[in-house]
Amino acid sequence: MSDVEALVDALTARLRPLEIAANQAWWLASTAVSDEHERRRVTTDIELREALGDVSAFGQIRDALASSSADGDSLARRQLEVLHDRTLPHQVPADLRAQLVELEAEVDGTFNAFRGRIDGEPVDDNTIARILRSSDDSAARRQAWEASKQVGGEVAPHVQELARLRNRAAQHLGSRDHFALALETSELDEKRLFETLDEVERVTTAPFAEWKAELDQDLARRFGCTVDELRPWHYDDPFFQEPPIAGSVNLDEWLEPADLEALTIRTYDGLGLDVRGVLERSDLLPRSGKSQHAFCIDVDHEGDVRVLSNNVPSEYWTGTMLHEFGHALYDIKVDPDLPWLLRSMHPLATEGIAMLFGRLVRDVEWLGSVAGINESDLEELRPRLSVARRASLLTFARWVLVMTHFERGLYADPDGDHTGRWWELVARFQLLTRPDGRDAPDWAAKIHVALAPVYYQNYLYGELVASQLQATLRTRAGGIVDRREAGTMLVEEFFAPGLALRWDALIERATGEPLTARHLAAELQTR
What we know:
Layout: H1 3-31, H2 35-52, H3 55-67, H4 74-87, H5 94-113, E1 116-118, E2 121-123, H6 125-134, H7 138-172, H8 178-184, H9 190-223, H10 252-255, H11 260-269, H12 276-281, E3 295-298, E4 305-308, H13 315-333, H14 347-358, H15 364-369, H16 375-412, H17 418-430, H18 447-451, H19 457-477, H20 484-495, H21 503-511, H22 518-525
Antiparallel strand pairs: 1-2, 3-4
Helix pairs in contact: 1-2, 1-3, 2-5, 3-4, 5-7, 6-7, 7-8, 9-16, 11-13, 13-14, 14-19, 16-17, 16-19, 16-22, 19-22, 20-21
């Protein structure tokens, strides 16, 4: 065994049980909020970060990387690269690491336990979503929208303190701020990222403005107001990250009676891929004392993969299940013979898969073959689905522009006027009007800002990846739905390599070309 292999094995043996314990504690804290579970989460997270922050171990990793040959053992070197990027952000004073863990856990606990209030009564996110999706009463919609933002007032001071602490850590390591460090340690180049954002802004500005102008006319008629009187609560989604029914399509009529677990199994069975084990370990129904969001977690990189969701039969939660089980599928199909450190994937790659499958909820073939919608209804839906897919891509792309620009500004100046800047970005990219007199930290109500910092660019890249994979699967397998060849291709070409390849090499290997916006742009041109 070489010195590099011995080093990697020793560090893996140390990190593996700590990461598993931290993941188990995070799952408990998310599914059953309690002081005990929050303390356990803090303890296990601190222990993991202390191991990642071991100065001696980091020095060994850095020295081994500097002395290892690029044409030597590729898996050994790749593990060193992964270890370097995982450990570098934690090379900070222990008291700073502990402050970050404790504050993040406190904010997470607040999000998990918090329920907004309407007329003094607590309401969950599903209730808010139902009001915004169905009510024609502008006053009721405004109350629901404001309830969705109330958690922002609870956590905003803590989120700003987290930004300050993260910046202290990044600057201790010689980075400009946390935004820059997060990109540096996730194999992303900031200049290239913002060139991509600029390109996305350029190709979406005109079509988004045209689509939204038509939408606004429809909404104004629906709510009996002028276009100038429309406000954010008129757009269904609290953050306008999904298009309203008026500018899209409503599939709830067909999906509300559906069994979402059965649809999920059927979707992946059609590709020859079994997700039943993940379903059995998952927590899928809403209740108090549980995170209201959705996520997938790979607890041990050995098959213990779980999904948290809050299903209410609907188009939204159907798409969410397909999205999250796309993540899960990736996790369970990584080559188990890879070294433990490489049995994972880059965030933008797994987001690409999740988005690829999440899109199926508006795919005509999926709606017929899997959801069982009859042919006559499909014919009536077909043109509206095309419009809906395009509207969804446009709306989400513009929302990602808001989030990524906002986060760069948050870390550039944690003490700045984030509320004012938030509404400037919302007006610029989403063409929404700030409510008169509104001066609340609505930006802090988005959980990603606090607890998944500098992550949103992965969703944008994920859309690019999804479009490129979709084009590839169309060429090689004839599509996705019920194509076992598509399942085989994804497993062998995209899932199995895990982190053994950099994300850019992985995408080129699987699709035959480097990541490009060309396929997404083509979808935006389709009406």
